[in-house]
Amino acid sequence: MSAKPVAAPLVQARDLAKTFDVSAPWLNRVLERKPRQLLHAVDGVSFDIEKGQTLALVGESGCGKSTVARLLVGLYRPTHGGLTFDGQDAHAAFKTAEGRKLRRRIQMIFQDPYASLNPRWTVEDIVGEPLTEHGIVTDPAQLEARVGALLQSVGLSPLDMVKYPHQFSGGQRQRISIARALATRPEFLVCDEPTSALDVSVQAQVLNIMKDLQRQHGLTYLFISHNLAVVRHVSDQVGVMYLGRLVELSGKQQLFENPRHPYTRMLLDAIPKLHDTGRSRTPVQGEVPNPLNPPDGCTFHPRCPHANSRCKAERPALLTIQGVKIACHAVEEGRI
Ligand SMILES: Nc1ncnc2c1ncn2[C@@H]1O[C@H](COP(=O)(O)OP(=O)(O)OP(=O)(O)O)[C@@H](O)[C@H]1O
Ligand code: SF4
Ligand SMILES: [Mg+2]
């Protein structure tokens, strides 16, 4: 009997990069003798997400998490590298007629449920728009039924569809955003800080709804958060980003119980109860360098207690070390 073929990961990001040209206008550059300035917001990021799993991305503000999210849903084209979705080159497909189908399969949930919902539309318009836009439902009665079912799936009442966004709380609005994102029956949801704008008690409710929906529909998530407690609750894999690059990528349990990269350790050390291995703590120190002028070598070296001369000169590659992906010379050399 032949072995069952192993399915490829649903999402495969390969060496994804996005560079922004943030130069002053041409005339100013010439008059003030300023060089062109390029900002490497995402600088060669690779990861896989298996179907039905959640990869969380963490890292301090400005490390490139939202830029990765926007690359994954096709809001940005990569400067370099690519994305394979279900075996298909996504960025090639986004440009063609096939791209419409692909956009139905990949949806995004944004951080701010206040800004992302049109205040002049009823909930029925908001949740129903992707259905009419993609020609999935044309009959008004059918549309109402589908919107009602979507609202119920996120714990709201079908009677809510005649209301406007301002008539809901923050948590309820985020549920409306989720219902809208689910309208086209997507397989992959990119969630950029979906609960950060909500009160802690409401956060848990929304996260639980997202987890239930994942189980029911086999959804695959990329989940961005700077809150490690949230990440621990929702993720299967965790990627830690620093200045546009992944510095550690591993299973959730491994990452929380045995963080290897000095930066991951620094992030975890900031939350005492989450992480108590008996290892001495390094308090969070220093600030993220200017991304327009990043340090040579390992960009974390000015903040790293283990930095040496190699770290200042040579950029560490993301290597698989004892089953975990890490970009750190000290880990590779067995110094830590
Ligand atoms: N459209 C843009 N044009 C120029 N620079 C940009 C643009 N979008 C993002 N950047 C820069 O790219 C870097 C990464 O930004 P990004 O928004 O991806 O970070 P982030 O990790 O999502 O941060 P936060 O946690 O604050 O949301 C930052 O230095 C940011 O200033
Ligand atoms: S490569 Fe060097 S500077 Fe960078 S995290 Fe590892 S030890 Fe620290
Ligand atoms: Mg962001």
Walk me through the structure:
A hairpin with a 2-residue loop joins β9 and β10. Helices cover 34% and strands 21% of the residues. The strands form two sheets. It has an eight-stranded mixed sheet, sandwiched between helices. The protein has a four-stranded antiparallel sheet with strand order 2-1-4-5. The protein has one domain (11-333): P-loop containing nucleotide triphosphate hydrolases (Rossmann fold). The longest helix is centred in the middle third of the chain and has 18 residues, at 200-217. α5 crosses α6 and α6 (140-153) packs across α7. It is of the alpha/beta class. It has 13 helices and twelve strands. Adenosine-5'-triphosphate (ATP) binds at residues 20, 22, 39, 41, 59, 61-67, 226, 291.
Give a short synopsis of this structure.
By secondary structure, the chain is an alpha/beta fold.
Mean pLDDT: 92
CATH class: Alpha Beta
Q: What overall form do the CA principal axes indicate?
A: globular
Count of all domains? 1
Small molecules (ligands, ions, cofactors) in the structure: adenosine-5'-triphosphate, iron/sulfur cluster, magnesium ion
What Rg is obtained from the alpha carbons, in whole angstroms?
Answer: 22 Å
Major β-sheet profile: 8 strands, mixed
The portion of residues forming beta strands comes to 15-25%
CATH architecture: 3-Layer(aba) Sandwich
What are the segments in which pLDDT stays under 50 over at least 5 consecutive residues?
none
Number of E-type strands? 12
Per the CATH scheme, the topology name is: Rossmann fold
Strand order of the largest sheet: 6-7-8-3-9-10-12-11
Distance between the termini: 46 Å
| Helix-strand makeup class | alpha/beta
Q: Output the helix-strand order.
A: EHEEHEEHHEHHHEHEHEEHHHEEH
Helix content, binned percent: 25-40%
**CATH homologous superfamily (4th level) name:** P-loop containing nucleotide triphosphate hydrolases
Give the helix tally: 13
